[in-house]
Amino acid sequence: MFFTSWRTAFLIFIPIILILFFILRGVKKEWTTEKQKIDNLGSLIYVVTRGLLAYGITILDEWGIVLVIASIFLLILFVKVEKRAKHPIYNLKLLKDVRYVIGNYAAMAAYFTTTIAFNAITFYLLYVEDYSEYFIGLILLIAPIIMVGLSGFSGRLTKRVDPRIISGVAMAFIFTSMILYAFMDHFELEYLIFACILQGIGAGLFSAPNNKYVLALVDVKDLPDASSLLSTSKEFGKILSGGIYTLIFSIFIVGGQLGDSSVDHLLILSTHIMMIINAIVAFVAMALLFYSYANTNWIMMLVLFHFSEVYFHHGLRICFNRIIFFKISKFRYT
Question: In sequence order, what are the residues at sequence separation of 6 or more whose Cβ sits closer than 8 angstroms to the Cβ of residue 96?
């Protein structure tokens, strides 16, 4: 029974990591910074900062607050150390380029929304709709399969279309899927599948163009630093999403027992709020990507801004009306 439990989901990565390790050992003359010394002090501060932040935002007590505050102070110290280091692990000078910051934020937003969405949908289907774990896994596979199928296509598409446009359109798909997820309240299964398809399309179209957009902004010698910052942005999105998910989930479900019908409406309400947060994060990324493309053409910028504003306000208005109606109806019948 050990190899048929949830532990297999972690053990399956061990052979994959080992294979990658031996493959990378065979890569020669690839790295442009291989002769530089490692910033040991900066690396240590970074690891401790990330660990404290990741753990602190997932526990809701005094120690959690202390750990988060400590991680903030360590982050400030890390920035000062990196500015003085001869060979910093992160070239913070890259952040002076607004376009580079926009690309990294978009990457963070993509991973942030995806992580929260999968967690929220899993709990909703398991405890509210009472689906089996096997069936939930099949449903959640829809988005990753579409993402894998579209990744190569989106990469080739960047040869003909500006990567910012592709990434912005991808964020529009993700934003739409988050709006649809915010309606989760005993809906038809086809509705969820459609939302998963939109999310998969958005995720599949996003990664390759955004990576190309970000890395094309720097010189060849700065590619390792730019790539590491981009990867950190993605990981930070997952860490932050886990903390926010835990916080909102704990606020609404505190004292309740998952699976109890008396807390189903609280689980649905917390899901609505998390998806609205996702929608806002995705919309900001979409707007910034379009702005980055259109800032040299004010007519195009105005058109895109008007479209984004109408799209955003219409979606949020529907979400908030849905939540208000949901709360009133629950109050009326309880």
Answer: none
What pLDDT sits at residue 328?
44
Q: What's the pLDDT tens digit per position in 23-58? A: 877 776 655 555 667 778 888 888 898 888 878 877
Residues of the chain with pLDDT under 70: 1-6, 28-36, 60, 186-187, 253-263, 295-334
Question: Which tens digit of pLDDT belongs to each residue from 129-170?
Answer: 888 888 888 888 888 899 888 888 888 888 888 888 899 999
Question: From residue 201, how far is each of 102, 166, 236 by CA, in Å?
Answer: 21, 11, 23
Question: How many residues appear in the chain?
Answer: 334
pTM here is 0.78
Q: Record the tokens describing residue 29, joined without a space.
A: 């003359």
DSSP at 182: T
With tokens 């500015």, the residue in question is 83
Kindly state the tokens that stand for 7: 């532990």
- CA dihedral of 248, 130, 191, 240, whole degrees rounded to 10: 20
Residue with tokens 């596979």: 141
Instruction: Please list the alpha-helical segments (H only) found in 129-188.
Output: 133-140, 142-157, 163-181
Is 97-332 assigned to CATH 1.10.8.60?
Answer: no
Do residues 197 and 83 make contact, with C-beta atoms less than 8 angstroms apart? no
Give the start-to-end residue ranges of the domains of the chain.
31-89, 97-332
Q: Shortest CA distance to 252 belongs to which of 67, 63, 124?
A: 124
Please give the span between the terminal C-alpha atoms of the chain, in angstroms, as a whole number: 43
Mean pLDDT of the chain: 79
